[in-house]
Amino acid sequence: MRTRLSTGVLLAAVLLAVTACSSGTDDDAGGKPEGGGASPSAGAPGSKVPDISEGIPGEPAGAERAALLAALKAVDPALAADADKAVANARQQCATITGGGNAVAAAQSRFGSAGHRVTEEQAKAINAVLERTLCPS
Question: Which of 33, 68, 79, 109 is exposed most, by the fewest CB atoms within 10 A?
Fold first, then answer.
């Protein structure tokens, strides 16, 4: 119960942070976002407003879902204890992997919880699994 609650709170905080970051306001005085990505200013001609759904694959089903869950279980059975949550985490992690973010730290945060720590090695294995099974290339 406590793990589910903590994970739910963490997921809600991440969603709120993502929503706040993509609100469309430009509080940065003309600076570029970290990583040299597209400028988020919506009014500039030729600029691209980042889409938070970019890099998030569709919901896997059938054999693809089973393969993803089996691969996550091979890394650590706790990762796939809640199948729906594991798939949701995996889909979100794809956006980090394909978007060039710190995929190891994101996997540790996204798949870990107060009751279950994800090591750096496990995070790397999670990312390798997702690159093979779910994330678009």
Answer: 33
